[in-house]
Amino acid sequence: MAQKKKSSASKSPKANGTAAPSVNITSYMHEERVFHPSKDFSKGAHIQSMAEYRKMYNESIKSPEKFWAKQAKNELVWLKPWKKVLQWKEPVAKWFVGGQLNVSANCLDKWLDTPTANKAAIIWEGEPAGDNKPGEERVITYKQLHRDVCRFANVLKRNGLKKGDRAIIYLPMVPEAAVAMLACARIGAVHSVVFGGFSAQSVADRIFDCQAKMVITSDGGFRRGMIVQLKKNVDDALKLKDAEGQSLTKTIERVIVLKRAGNEVEIEEGRDVWWHRELHHVDANCPAEKMDSESNLFILYTSGSTGKPKGILHTTAGYLLTAKMTSKYVFDLRPTDVYWCTADVGWVTGHSYVVYGPLANGATSLMYEGAPNFPEPDRFWRIVDKYGVTVLYTAPTAIRAFMKWGVEWTKKHDLTSLRLLGTVGEPINPEAWMWYREVIGGSKCPIVDTWWQTETGGIMITPIPGATPTKPGTATLPFFGILPEVVDDNGRPVPKGSGGKLVIRKPWPGMLRGLWGDPQRYKEVYWSEVKGSYFTGDGCRQDKDGYFWIVGRIDDVLNVAGHRIGTAEVESALVSNHNVAEAAVVGRPDELKGQALVAFVTLKTGVIASPELREQLRAHVGKEIGPVAKPDDIRFAEGLPKTRSGKIMRRLLKQVAAGTEIKGDTTTLEDFNVLSRLGSSDD
Ligand code: PRX
């Protein structure tokens, strides 16, 4: 790791992070710099000191039900009060049992008779034209958003979507994505947003898994000046069949198509309708459905260690409370903020911190449609400057890319409006943290490194910006009500400084309620590894101050540019290609992406390895899962190294992937015969 610079830290640095042997780039334990929030920042913050944080945290742990009851009463608008705060029968939690509310009403109607009604709820910046012209822009007030959501909710009803039905949302980063989510929530339908970068196959698999009745999509979306053919992908998805020749998508009755990119699309009479045409038939009167606290709000698919993505299920009251409270306290939201979370709505960060969290707080949430380096690498800074963004929440992989592109791009713009910075998605290496602080934050903005997961619904371990002293590379301390612990294989807490598995000891309101249609897998994956605790799948250490340092995944899930990718998923995509006999996918440390995907592939007899075949296989994975899962490197092998019991020796492959740079003829076959004899009984 590069040498660290001395900086304005309160304790003098003797930081010499070294390359970690295991999961990620840096061994953070040597990091000794500490940054305290400035007096100025703390003075105006929701939580102004560690004493205040500790008091509230202790209350939340000592009397959780009392604590959450108070928060739920203060933060949410209820249509009917709950009878019981928590009903816990491991592994099933029910929060605010007997209560009724509506998420869309909490995000929109709540503000109608207040000054917030005419405030910007969403500021949207479209992808710019190729000649670096500014993008299209739209500002939607709370009142307008309420109207748009009510009208679209009526469109959903008109098209047969009912309470409890599932709808797939497959849209680009346009305000209509938020409208569609909120409209589903308004009528009590369950949405499942599929990231626009996923393939037709992924869309079909998700439709099949949740038996969706409707797809909400657009003709296309813009990405780096190109049109992503979303409707075409949906058409393809709706034709896909399983191995027995059965349609995967026969539950789909309607496809609603937003006109966005203007590309030509096929419209199937009786199945497909245009969003804008449908609006002619509805009015803006759509009372929010009374929903039980535990009604399903959304399903979001994420990678696990087996080949099949998991449908993470979130429900109404607990999720909303978590999204709202974490947004308020972690981003320290204030009425004047222009808050920008750069995540796509296709990921959980987009759900909790572009849509539900900020809107439930009456904040202004900025949405950007395009890529950070299109048409030029200053795209983000241009937007920060243009709108006076005050809070920026992005991913370490993006920060590392900005570092690489250089400060000439950041210097072109005035970034002084920023007052708080956040990161999420993977461990941030201290160099990137320092660069973020100094170059983007002008050394004045606190950084909140937030650890959480699709499963947790909201932020779990994080600094509280007006209170927590931060250290580069750690997500620091737990949020209210969260009781994390680092344990050994027997579930016993490990001493400070030792590595172990990160578990959460108590249920929390935003936790997943299960895996869609698979209670057994839910129990096995999360509640069987460590008795009585939720198992996160992450490795972690606590330092002497109790700060949590996440070191990365310990299961077969990789974190590539902040995206969770199951190696088994990529492997099964590879072997579904007729040329492939066997495949093993492992991670390799990558300067920009955190981890890169390396696939070792053995071909069927008679198939010849070639650069063309490599490209063909990459494209095949892109088609099966989506471009995010394309292996960075495919290496052909005559056979894979295996233990005597037949297990692929992954640790060995990881070393090979990390150690050898491929030069020259990239089709060279790996010969694992020698290696496997050396590697004895690794798995
Ligand atoms: O390994 C952790 C990593 O991302 C995983 C969760 O991925 P996903 O469900 O896609 O959600 C990403 C956005 C919440 C975690 O198990 N991760 C997330 N945030 C951090 C992190 N690792 C280290 N530090 C973080 N701040």
The biggest beta sheet reads: 7 strands, mixed
Distance between the termini: 29 Å
Question: Can you tell me the CATH architecture of the domain at 100-371?
Answer: 3-Layer(aba) Sandwich
Main sheet strand line-up: 7-6-19-18-20-21-22
Number of helices: 20
Proportion in helices = 25-40%
Rough outline: globular
CATH fold field value of the domain at 100-371: Rossmann fold
Descriptive terms for the model:
single chain; about 675 residues; alpha/beta; Rossmann fold; GMP Synthetase, Chain A, domain 3; seven-stranded mixed sheet; five-stranded parallel sheet; 20 helices; about 30% helix; disordered C terminus; binds adenosine-5'-monophosphate-propyl ester
Describe the structure.
By secondary structure, this protein is α/β, with parallel strands linked by helices. Among the domains are: 100-371, ANL, N-terminal domain (Rossmann fold, 3-Layer(aba) Sandwich), CATH 3.40.50; 561-677, ANL, C-terminal domain (GMP Synthetase, Chain A, domain 3). Helices cover 29% and strands 23% of the residues. The protein contains 20 helices and 32 strands. The strands form ten sheets. A seven-stranded mixed β-sheet has the order 7-6-19-18-20-21-22, sandwiched between helices. It has a five-stranded parallel β-sheet with strand order 9-8-10-13-14, sandwiched between helices. The chain has a four-stranded antiparallel β-sheet with strand order 23-24-26-27. Helix 5 (142-158) packs across helix 6 and helix 7 (200-210) crosses helix 8. The radius of gyration is 24 Å and the shape is globular. The chain starts with 17 loop residues before the first strand and ends with a helix.
